[in-house]
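Most newcomers find our protein records easier to grasp once they have seen one. To make this concrete, we reproduce a full record directly below:

…
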Amino acid sequence: MVVATRARFANTVRRANLGKRVQFLSKISRAILATIASMALAVAAIGISAHFVPVSDHITLIAAALAPYLMLGAPVSLTIWAAIRRRILAGTAVVLTCAALFTQLPLYSHNPEGDQRSSATIRLLTANLYLGQADAASVVAEAATDADFVA
C-alpha cells in the first residue's frame, strides 16, 4: 500500500512539473505572439493614418503608397489577440480592421451607373522626344487634337 502511494505521488509530481514546463513554454509563446500582434497593430495604425495624412515628403509618400498593404496588419493582429484571449487589444484590432475596410472597400467597388460627379475622363499624352530630335510639329498637332494634358 505504501509503495503504491509513493508511486502515485511520484507520478503526480512528474505531471505537475511537466505542467509547469508546458505552462512556461506557453508563457513564452504567448509573449512572442503578443509581440508579433503588437507590431502588426502598430503597422496597421501607421497604414490607416498614412491614408488620411497629406503627402509632404518622401516618407509620407511611401507610407501612403504602402497603406493598403500596411493595413493588412489589422486582421492579423485581431486573429492573434483573439487567439491569446486579450479582449481589449482584440477590440482595438477590430476597430482598426473596420477602419481599414472603410478606407479600402470603396476603391474596389464598381458603380455601374458611373457617377459623373465624382470622376472625370482625361486624355493624357506622353511623348519621348529623344533629347529634342523628334518631330515637334507632329507632337504639337497630336496634342492639339487628341490630348487634354501633355506630359
